[in-house]
Amino acid sequence: MKKIVFIVLTLLVVSLSVLVNAQDKGAEVVVFEKGRMQPVTFAHHMHQQKLSNDCSSCHDLFPMESGIIKEMITQEKLKKQQVMNSKCVKCHKDRKKQGLAAGPTKCTACHVRSK
Questions:
Q1: Which contacts (CB < 8 Å, 24+ apart) does range 60-66 have?
Q2: Among 78, 92, 77, residue whose Cα is nearest residue 42
Q3: Out of 3.90.10.10, 3.30.365.10, 3.30.950.10, 3.40.50.920, which CATH number does the structure's domain 26-110 have?
Q4: Global confidence as pTM
Q5: Where are the domains of the chain?
Q6: Would you tell me how many other CB atoms lie within 10 Å of the CB of residue 103?
Q7: Spatial distance between the Cα atoms of 88 and 90, rounded to a whole number of angstroms
Q8: pLDDT digits (tens, 9 = 90+) for 55-105
Q9: ∠26-28-34 over CA atoms, to 5°?
Q10: Do the Cβ atoms of 37 and 113 come closer than 8 Å?
């Protein structure tokens, strides 16, 4: 009986692990369309890995929905500078201060002209 309970519990743990890893992590890459600047190609999955899947690092400012940033900007519920300055650039600068790998902090490093 103990073996059966152990096997069932093991299968349950493995199944839950598979489900958690299979959850929707959003788009691999997100392109933020240009206003007056060039569009930004944002490596979403890479950022998730760097932040140990702590989605709240960014998603405390906006919900996890496809196209939500553009929608919130259009509805004037979110300013572009809120995203760039309070999230992107701040995070990159903070990581650099901590001696961690960090992304760019200059506008033209992310807003790159396509060739």
A1: 61/86, 61/87, 64/26, 66/26, 66/27
A2: 92
A3: 3.90.10.10
A4: 0.69
A5: 26-110
A6: 18
A7: 6
A8: 888 898 889 988 888 888 889 888 878 888 888 999 999 999 999 989 999
A9: 95
A10: no
Joined together, the tokens standing for residue 5 give 């309970």
The length of the chain is: 115
Contacts 24+ apart (CB under 8 A), 24-29: 25/53, 26/64, 26/66, 27/66
Q: Record the tokens describing residue 74, joined without a space.
A: 């259009």
Q: pLDDT higher for 115 or 59?
A: 59
H-run or E-run covering 20: helix 2-22
- Bridge partners (DSSP) of residue 114 are none
pLDDT mean across residues, the chain: 82
Q: How far is CA 44 from CA 16, 48, 90, 103, 113, in A?
A: 24, 6, 17, 13, 20
